[in-house]
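Run log, item B.
One chain of 354 residues. Sequence copied directly from the ordering sheet:
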Amino acid sequence: MIDPRVKSAIGHWAARFVANGVVLTDFEEVTASLTSWDDWCAAWCARGAVHEALGREALQSGHMLSAGEHLQRAGVYYHFAKFLFVHDAAQSKAAHGKAIECRTLALPHLSPPGERVTIPYEGKHLYGILRKPKGVSRPPVMLMACGLDSTKEETDAYEQPFLARGIATLVFDGPGQGEGEYDFAIRGDYEVAVRAVVDFIETRADLDTGRIGMWGVSLGGYYAPRAAAYDRRIKACMALGGPYDFGVAWEGLPELTREAFRVRSRKATLDEAQRHAATLTLKDCASRIACPIYIMNGKLDRIVPWRDTERLAREVKGPVDLMLIDDGNHIANNRAYRWRSHSADWMAKRLGAG
């Protein structure tokens, strides 16, 4: 009998895995081999090691483009080994370390290349990846806020459409996310973290600090509009599959998601975590959002009700572009072709890129 947690992970996130860089055959083979959630992390690490070995072999042979491709893919596999595997902290952290290592090795060999950046924050640091489009002097830049279970090691497929349109991307791990989860708990007032990232951008002479956009996916689809409500330096915002009020959405969340939120919020019980989830809300700030905003989700989303997407669109103050995809799942990753290019065109127009 298959562990219901394995079935849940496959049922909710299969399209996302493939859309974000996992080879379909690998996904089918790895998931078919699993009956217990306890084996999830090790199985994905083993398949990630195959791609890592190809990348290291390419590095040794001087085939740098191939090395970047293989190592980038390996980082995604190690990320998915760890993504909601919170019940075994040691395994999770080891897989996460491999994800960071592989993407960091890949960065100089990607097209365009990337730079690992360190951002001062509350006496410690947040970490991100900055990539700049080729042939563009002082490009606009888009901040990228990941979700509850995503990190900067997963986002290459999300970055590419914007880079191709002349927009630099800065994806970062915020409080409770990726490298940020070891020093900081999830916080509802995520604008505090974004303020630190925007302050960092303003130290960079190679970026146009007057043209800053903000993008967020899943729980990041809450974080991005939350930040845009409080920081006027953000000139355009994208909210993809984000909850309006995480406390209200709590009961409908998958078991794996609720437990991951509990751990990354540093709460002892699910009841405490649910109370903390109620602090992640846009009800007092959606009307403050004055910059143009692009809001998208699929109507078949079983994690975040699509009505949340509609509600945010009704309440913002600034210009709104709302896209609801009738046959789309969470973040419409099963219909990524319907919105990824379209949203990149939208952001390019708002930031004067391309």
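Observations after the first pass:
- The chain has two domains: 1-110, 112-354.
- Residues 112-354 form a domain with the Rossmann fold fold (CATH 3.40.50.1820).
Flagged for discussion on Thursday.
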